[in-house]
Amino acid sequence: MYKATLIPGDGIGPEVISAATSVIEAAGVDIKWDEKQVGQAAMAKYNNPLPEDTINSIEINRIALKGPTTTEIGKGFRSANISLRQRLNLYANIRPIKTIEGAKTKYRDVDLVIFRENTEDLYMGIEHMIGKDAAESIKIITREASERIASMAFSYAVKEKRKKVTCAHKANIMKLSDGLFLSSVRSVAGKFPDIEYEEVIADGLFMNMVMNPQDYDVLVLPNLYGDLLSEMSAGLVGGLGVVPGVNIGVEAAVFEPTHGTALDIAGQGIANPTAAILCGVMLLRHLGEKDAAERIYNSVSRVIKNGKHVTRDLGGTASTLDMTKAIIDSLPGS
Ligand code: NAD
């Protein structure tokens, strides 16, 4: 039996996370979940968006499945997600963006993986007012953090038999900060002569990504551009409801969907559980449970392709529970 931390999160989080745990259970993998809180749920219970108890649990289990958590815009407590990544040194955010046949989208055959640096850049939150009418936000880029995200992206490319790594930057404008990111990635690229390496200016990448997403394979970006690209790329394969992700470091891995708390549909039982279930697939692969992972992935694909039991965002009328049940029923041996 495995042990992992479970963070249901806010909004639609508990609905989609319970879908993921029930599919994992139905696939026959025994995980003892240690349920903890982050975000608004933690504020309500502990008056702290990121309780030490939650951090301790992830440090012990080294694996967590997490739902989205609320961050107020322009006020309120600091993003618990960002604090969590920094506390546990989850230095990479990985998002596989892959076409699922049957999901409503303008593109076919998209299959790319985004490696986003997760601990620094403008997201360190070092900002202050200068008087009443000006604000300053400080962008930090270090060689160490840039090289380790690049190493992870290239090592992944080798392990998964990918062909190309693309590094995106704005070193034409931010010559020192993005320049350091670029030169760090370039130096790592030199150690992987069998992987094709290309450099693109981030705005050009965004344009080409919506025209020719099939041009890309593995991408490595600093935090801010990586965040924007991950969200945009979800739109290439069916939207936020179908894209999983992981925040990972040396000591721990926190699997969480790309989407947020979706307060507009929370509590209605209509959220798409796919992203959370595919986070479960990533978690199982991380544990080495490859057979169960593939069975679940194939079952999700079958249900989406079939189209009869999919949620509204995928063009259907199914509830979260209906879609989850269809995925469980479609597992081999069910
Ligand atoms: P959102 O992802 O919550 O919602 C954007 C749109 O996508 C909404 O219309 C929503 O209904 C839809 N959507 C999202 N997930 C869906 C799903 N599974 N099924 C069907 N439809 C879905 O983005 P937002 O409105 O920008 O953010 C809301 C809150 O979530 C904010 O507080 C934000 O900070 C937080 N957030 C948290 C995380 C995280 O914890 N990892 C990530 C992103 C946003």
Automatic annotation (TrEMBL):
The keyword Ligase does not apply. SMART domains: Iso_dh (SM01329). Pfam families: Iso_dh. It comes from the Bacteria. Keywords: Oxidoreductase. Residues 3-327 form the Isopropylmalate dehydrogenase-like domain. The keyword Lipid biosynthesis does not apply. InterPro entries: IsoPropMal-DH-like_dom (IPR024084). Belongs to the isocitrate and isopropylmalate dehydrogenases family. This is Isocitrate/isopropylmalate dehydrogenase family protein.
